[in-house]
Structure formats: structure tokens, C-alpha cells
Amino acid sequence: MYVNYGQGQQNVEFWGLSPYDDNVQINNYKAQNGITYPCAGYQGGAAAAINIVISGQPFLGYPTWVVICPDRSFTFDVCFPPSITCFDPYFAACGPPMAADFIADQTQICETNFVQFTDQSIGNPTLWIWDFPGGNPSTSSEKNPLVEYPNAGQFDVSLTITNGIAGNTITKPNLIEVDPSPEVYAGLKGETCVNEHITVTDASSQNTSTLLWQIVAGQGILENSQSISPTYIPAPEDAGTTVTLKLTGNGSGECASMNAESIKEIDIWQQPEVTLMPFDTICYQWDEYPLVGGYPEGGVYSGTGVIDNIFYPQIAGVGSHLITYQWVDLQTGCSNSAEEVIVVVICSGIWNGTEMPIFNIYPNPTKGEFVVELVQSGNYELTITNIAGIKVFSAYLNESSTIKLDNVENGIYNVTIYDGKKSHTKKITIKK
Question: Tens digit of pLDDT for each residue in 205-214?
């Protein structure tokens, strides 16, 4: 038996079964209909038609042809002698030519959305081979697959159909257009002092149409909330807390209904407490006057006549001069300052209340702990008494020291230093 696949418009298959085929008639039919016949054996068919079996059944009779359709159905008849019209009913029964086609329920989508593909092929296919570049899944053998597109871009879609004999392929270039979803980043955790503001400089956004910052936790004010770089101004109540800001970005195009969110935290540090004790009136004739009394220690003094934390009265001149003490917390970077006026006079005598002080105390007022800072070196006796003159503390000093009065009541106390010749007294207020 000889088998051949039709090469013409119907994609049918012919089997020649007997030696009675007339090649002339067959060739005429081919010329008129564009169909290729098997043309095997002598006279165009098989050499014999003895014991032919078709679909498991013995073939007994006197046919000339079997016509097999792409769907594997078949028809046979004598058709002797072969004529142009005798095969027409069999071709008509095979249906239309096989052609792949499909539709998508949407062709422009947002990232992570799904597209439903529906087969519309003709020709009774039995196998579907889909190819989805950029899709999930990327291939499918389902008739009507559902495909997710997780990333933005333009993507082709191809479908190949077959029935085991014939087949067809269609490719639709750039059929699916996927718009990018919005992305926002509020930036790293920030920090600022309660008396300062902070502007966000490390936030970013992509594929957004609008932006909005909101205060999730915090009592301050948010300026430029619709820009990528807003400014947060802390409230006094924010001190010692963590403020939380939220950035929301609205999508664009097919992703207009999508939002992206990101959180930024900002630590708000307390402003340090800085004090500066009052200065003594000093003489213009003095060469220099070391500035002390700022608390916490380690800060910087500034003002007219101040160089390297030393006040030079002859540079400043006679009169009142504002001295500023600034201290920075090295752990938080927060700073604060205190101010006092220093008065410079022309001294007519050695004392007159204007002699060079030998010590200072700070902070004042205090909760019970304070520093006795010696301006002039030497050995001194320290005595602390209450307003009734009762001694509450005493010690010998040869350097600046920290004094702790844990067991005394709130009130005003006299701090006296005796240098062996004269006593020098300052008042300190204890307020726990």
C-alpha cells in the first residue's frame, strides 16, 4: 500500500488501492483542483488490492480510492473509472483548511496582571502549542490558557496547531504591552534634633503620576508633602521619639489604579540642657580672663574679645559684652547654647569687688551635683554651709573637683574657698 499526503489546498491524504486507476483522469483532476495524488504503482495505484485492512477492518470490494481527512476520518468508494466529480463530496466533508488564530481579552495591561487567550483556529486541531515570551507560564498546551505578565515590556505571542498530520503557526508581534507598576522608596532611617528640621534627600520613585507624604506618627509639620523631598519640622513633643512618615506613589497608564507605599523613620533627639553661670565684673587692666562656668563641660565660648575660650578685656574694651557658650552632644550631634554678659571696668584699686576670681561653680542651679573649678592654682579649704550657717560639706582641694550633695534639702548654700589668707564665697542653688 502506498501513502501520500496531499499538498494542495485541502491537505487531504489519498490511498490508492487498486490497479484500475486511470492516470489521465487523475492528472486532469489534479490540474483542475490543484490536488496532488499519490500516483504510485503501475496505473497510479497499488499493484494489488488483496487483503487490504482499513481501521482494523478487512477491505472487501472494488474501490479505487480512500480519502483521509486531516482529522483522521476517511471515506472510500469505487469511483471507477475515476472522474473529476466523484471525489468532490469527500473533499467537502474534510472541512476548511487548517489555520491557527486566537484572541486576547486585553492587550495592554499592568505588571502582574493576567491575559486570557482564546483559540479561534479552524481545521479541528487536536494539539495547541503556545509560546509566551515574558509570560508565566512561558509555554502552554492548553486550548485557552491564562497567562500572567510579571514584568513591563512588549511581548510576542505564537500559536502552533496540529492534528497529527497537518499544522499551522501564527505569531502576533508585540501583541501584549505591559505597563510598569509604580515603585517608591522613602529612604533610610534619619535623625535630627528637636530644634532643627530635616529634609528627605534619599527618597526615589519610578512610574508614578503623583506622590504624597503623610505623617503616620509625629506631632510636627510636614512641608512640600507632594514632592520627592519634603521637610519635616519636629514639634517639642517629638523629642525623644521616632517619627514615622509614609510615601505613597500613584501609578500611571494601565497601572493608574495601583499604589506603592514606603515608610521612613526619623529619630528626634532631645536638645541638650546648657547653662552658663554669671560672670564677675573684671578689670580692663587684666591681661586675660579664662572663661569657665559653662555646663556641660567641653563646649566653646564666643564673643567679642574671646580667643580659644579666653576673654581679653583689653581687646573687648570697657563695657558690657555678650558671651555665648555652645555645647554639642557628640552622640546625637544636637547642640544648645547659653549666654551671659561680662562687664569690663577700669579698676582704680586692687579690690573694689573686681579682683580676679579664684574659683567658679557650675551648673547653678543644680540638682545636687556641681563642679568647683579652680581658676588659680593652689591648696584650698572648701566649706559649704546653708543659709543658717550650718556646715553641710567640707574638703581640701588642689584641683577642680565635682561635688555631690545627695543628702541636703533644696535651698541656697554658700560655697567658700579659703586660700590661707582670704575666704572667697559664691552662692549656689540646689533644686532637686
Answer: 999 999 999 9
